Amino acid sequence: MRRSIPFALAAVMVVSMLACGGSDDGAQPSSSPTERLSSTAKVSIIEPTEGTVVQGTSVRVRIKLDGGKIVSQVSSNLKPDEGHIHLLLDGRVVQLLGSLDERIDNVVPGAHLLQVEFVAADHGPFSPRVISAVSFEAA
Question: Does a structural domain hold residue 117?
């Protein structure tokens, strides 16, 4: 039997996450969203696809990044096309400085929301945020 997060619930979860704007990595948020750099990049999730049922406790995450480059160094010298990948599972950061092909282990059975965000080299979000989300189920 296939279950997935209803689209409306997934949309509410994404909007809630975007409204928070907080960070689990200790970075200080800017005082105004207009102070953040805009990015030339676009990010999308190739795998898992929306509504997929994943067997087991490990989820492969494949990401497509257009117009951006992943850098390994944390820096305050921000460029619109350089940054890091952050993976969030159910609103919690599970990977910083990520690559375009990652694996999330110890995923509990049930419905989940996966978010992928391309962030600036200082781990702060671009403005507007460069983010993509899909819902999936772990079985």
Answer: yes
